[in-house]
Amino acid sequence: MSNTSSSAIDLSLLAPPDVVKQISFEEILKLRLEQFYQEMRQDQPEFPDLLESDPAMKLAQVFAYGEMLIRQDTNEQALAVLLAFAKDNDLDHKAAERNLQRRIISPATENTLEVKESNESLRRRVQLAPEGQTTAGSEGSYIFHGLNADPRVKDVYPYAPLDENENPTGICNIYVLSNEGTGEASEELLNVVTAALNAKSVRPLTDRPIVYSASILNYSIQAEIFIDEGPDENIVLNSCYKAAEEYTNKTHSFNDGVSLSGIYQALHQPGVSRVNLISPAGNLDTSLGQVAYCTGINISRASL
């Protein structure tokens, strides 16, 4: 199953813009020392190069380090105004330009902290915002309005079947993935999305959207990793677990499923020489309206 939003630019693949300059402490220090020597040798042609122990060298290193921090701050400020790189409060301001705000997934209670929408989710809604201006019932429009229907909506997949003559039927099946539990949407959430997509300002008169929950394909990851001599075992295992968790979170959406190559790539962290993947045994290809959900990750060090 292909992702309906595949036509949108994948912002995560964009390289840093040219406004971001490469920073090197050594290059800054070398440049400033050359300027220093040039100035000094105008009056004292025999002025020697500074030794590492010279106080002036320590000052030059301090100034070079300070300049490096200023340049890094400049780079971060430049990235903060770009949708692909903005995060947290900076991303909130980018969202406000589209009349959007970060959603509250679950409010704070006496025992739990407030859970807010992730940067990735908000960034995607901002990118899809222009789709919300159309009244043509495009795929992007249904995704945008579906995502904005409720904070519990994690992903939306619209599909319009054709009749035997390849003509539109007027029916648009909308599959909804929840960010609660395994992702199966409750009846109450489906009713909320249905109401949002049937609003007069959203639904084209010729469309009949029908909302369904995503069907969940459960799987688990079990693997043994071979660790090189030297690296700390716990650090390597934690790194592998974190990378595998990030991959499962990324693939918990309407896409082409879970690939063995993706799992292997996540588990091949620095310090890992080989991976013995026990499960899943093969690629997990999802069908229409289906989403893969990882029920658990078990990674251990292989015994030699």
What's this entry about, in short?
This is Baseplate J family protein. The protein has 8 helices and 8 strands. It has 304 residues and is of the alpha/beta class.
Second CATH tier, the architecture of the largest domain = 2-Layer Sandwich
Q: Looking at the structure, what is the overall shape?
A: extended
Query: Any idea what the radius of gyration is?
Result: 26 Å
Helix content: 25-40%
Strand content: 15-25%
The run of helices and strands is: HHHEEHHEEHEEHHEE
Regions with pLDDT < 50 over 5+ consecutive residues? Answer: 2-6
Main pleated-sheet profile:
3 strands, mixed
Top CATH class of the largest domain: Alpha Beta
Helix and strand content put the structural class at: alpha/beta
* Count of β-strands: 8
Task: Walk me through the topology.
Blueprint: H1 25-43, H2 55-79, H3 88-96, E1 104-106, E2 115-116, H4 119-128, H5 139-147, E3 153-159, E4 171-178, H6 187-197, E5 208-213, E6 215-227, H7 233-251, H8 260-267, E7 272-279, E8 290-301
Parallel strand pairs: 4-5, 6-8
Antiparallel strand pairs: 1-2, 3-4, 6-7
Helix pairs in contact: 1-2, 3-4, 7-8
Description:
This is Baseplate J family protein. InterPro entries: Baseplate_assembly_J_pred, Phage_Baseplate_Hub. There is one protein chain. This protein is of the alpha/beta class and 304 residues long. The chain has three domains: 18-81; 88-215, 2-Layer Sandwich (GMP Synthetase, Chain A, domain 3), CATH 3.30.300; 216-301, no CATH class. The protein is built from eight helices and eight strands; from the N terminus they run H-H-H-E-E-H-H-E-E-H-E-E-H-H-E-E. The chain has helices spanning 25-43, 55-79, 88-96, 119-128, 139-147, 187-197, 233-251, 260-267; strands spanning 104-106, 115-116, 153-159, 171-178, 208-213, 215-227, 272-279, 290-301. The strands form three sheets. It has a three-stranded mixed sheet, covered by helices on one side. A three-stranded mixed sheet has the order 7-6-8. Strands 1-2 form a two-stranded antiparallel ribbon. Helix 1 (25-43) packs across helix 2 and helix 3 packs parallel to helix 4 (119-128).
